[in-house]
Amino acid sequence: MKEDQDYIRDIAQIRTIMERSSKFLSLAGWAGIMAGVYALVGAYIAYTVFDFNPDKLVYSTIQTEGLVAGLSKVVFLAITVLILAIGTAILLSYKKATKRGEKLWNALVKRLLINMAVPLIAGGLLILILIANGLIGLMAPITLLFYGLALYSASQFTYEVLRSLGLIQIGLGLLSAYFVEYGLVCWALGFGVAHIVYGIYMHYRYER
What we know:
mainly alpha
């Protein structure tokens, strides 16, 4: 006859199996840490090297000519940071999935990416519209808001802590929309510091 501890262990195993089949659990904490480091370095370069810090809303493309002229360098820098972050996330998640005996690419991952893609594509298109109209000061709030929505939407397919990270990004996005002069600071806090804290939490909570 089974003891109480045996039943508890069986229930825990069933719960783990169900969780593995419904959640993508190969996100690596170090991927979050590295993404945060890349973002902080990118924000530092944008501010100090490219002198990019839109600190107010300007409704005239003439007044934003200086910022728009140097914007191509900042966009290239942002794309570089994005590629590094995604590449690191894929590499570390692949290693973690292999270690767990799982495939990185499956139906669950497809659903996760689709749910992230909708707000990210909408936000990307909106940013292009803002740039076309010279509203550079709203770029930081919009990237934070739509990235936060993407994380919140994707959290139903992976660790719940991703929902908290999404809410933090949304909060910082709203804050930087009100205090536009601190847009770059909020961006660095959201994409940099928040990712590092999230990655450290993930590493110590699930990978040790």
